[in-house]
Fold:
Amino acid sequence: MTASRYDVLGIGNAIVDVIARAEDDFLVAQGMHKGGMALIDEARAQAIYAAMGPAVEASGGSAANTIVGVASFGGRAAFVGKVKDDELGKTFAHDIRAARVAFDTKPATGGPSTARCYIMVTPDGERTMNTYLGAAQDLTPADIDEAQIAAAEVVYLEGYLWDPPQAKEAFVKAATIAHKNGRDVALTLSDAFCVDRYRDEFLDLIRKGTVDIVFANEHELRSLYQTADFDSGARALRLDAKLGVVTRSEKGCVVISRDAVESVPAERVEQVADVTGAGDLFAAGFLVGLARGKDHRTAARLGGLAAAEVIQHIGARPAVSLKARAAENGLAV
Amino acid sequence: MTASRYDVLGIGNAIVDVIARAEDDFLVAQGMHKGGMALIDEARAQAIYAAMGPAVEASGGSAANTIVGVASFGGRAAFVGKVKDDELGKTFAHDIRAARVAFDTKPATGGPSTARCYIMVTPDGERTMNTYLGAAQDLTPADIDEAQIAAAEVVYLEGYLWDPPQAKEAFVKAATIAHKNGRDVALTLSDAFCVDRYRDEFLDLIRKGTVDIVFANEHELRSLYQTADFDSGARALRLDAKLGVVTRSEKGCVVISRDAVESVPAERVEQVADVTGAGDLFAAGFLVGLARGKDHRTAARLGGLAAAEVIQHIGARPAVSLKARAAENGLAV
Structure:
């Protein structure tokens, strides 16, 4: 195993978020499933945008948010994802590079525009997402650079990558390279509906060892094993995965390995403004901890710190240095 | 005087803000004057964007922010300003219309792109602005619709309109129509450097009565009358303007009319996150109060409420309903 250039390399959909506050009534009128992520086409995107309130735009994308979190902790980070060479694509590229993340994926010069996610934030801080995948659909195995993947301690993949047609091939190519080089592969299950769409494939990835580390929240875990009972889900994951990390919102998280099942409490949060990015940033802290050789409990606490920061403001990327936040909490990384 | 359709109609530069946090060192390295607004060309815009940190995009523009504030108070509001029919132009148009503001100015189909303001927010909450005027430069008298101007109780103009070459002609055309219809014309001096560029013209507008109501902060007032002494500036404004409203940050404001000079204290603010839009939103509250027949003190308190709301979060437009905020404070409008 050669020396690494990156602590974490993420592969995901490159998306710009369009974020607006909305009342629950708006979700009902628009037929949106609160708390979920729906895939939409261009026509629906235009209809939603026309109906929604004043918005702010900020770079997003689940794995991209995680990778920016890794960089904010001072981790060495890279991202692979597809934008178009349009205004939003330039915005996405600027923001991720300005966060000191290596981002070298060639933008598409034709085809659909850069992906957008229309996010409604209700007064309780919950977010409801509508994703137009656009150019993100055009990520292919050709976008996976062998040398770059080989140079990352952990390759982190989002389950949402199963939605674009060729991205899963890119995903498998990256996992194969990583393992050939003695690296770990992590997967987030992304969303309970996403698990519903690809349950058998996800289980296959985990059981065959294509994926070493699985991130999920309670809903995703229950969906994966089609059980209403958290403990049965956790037991099943323990048998299937090398390492499982299940987040439970204000109840903290459970780290599940062959050796132990550890519960780690959540950070205290004053007021939840917008839960967008909570899971993404939890993964950032956990992965940084892992890459830096911390124990699972410490990694989970780093994840909790990052998640607590991101839900106290609008937007899915950290507003402060997570490295500084970790140091303030006696968790230097 | 016919019945009005709008409480306030604003004319200003239609701009999308690109907002990033920055340390004071960054301003020094970039040769930026802290707290000011600098006009930049496209090349400088690209250089600043390449150097600045991860950003969020949100519709802005001084008078546009004011008009959105008026609408948030429940006021009937219209805006006139020039975007291009590009992505950012569509974003600007969406956001202002979604705020229930009438916005009918035809977008430019060629020429420079929609205006952008690169805003650095330092840890003290101060903002430093760099404006690429782009399509906003192409506002001309042809964009002023006589019937629409005639239908507004108050026409509100930003001093920044003196920067684009033909906008001042649009400004004068609008003021003439307003007065012919018995309406009031208000002007914000915008920025001390802007006053420096156009001092004689601004004084001329005020003294000739082209403008009835003048909004300024302390720095702008001092620059207008080239005095270090606030009281001399206030006395001079009292002689020149029908009504002057001078904001003094945490010291509140002073309302200066021929009859009286009244000081009104500021609202208490927990923590200043970003002062962008403070003056714009103060004007919104004051103008709504005026249009609804409130006394000057009440109008000033509405202005203070709106300013206090906007400086407690990132971005220059209200994040909550100002109508509700006013009602909570016993100031139903």
In short: Residues 6-328 of chain B form a domain with the UDP-N-acetylmuramoyl-L-alanine:D-glutamate ligase fold (CATH 3.40.1190.20). The mean pLDDT of chain B is 96. The first strand of chain B starts at residue 6 and ends at 11.
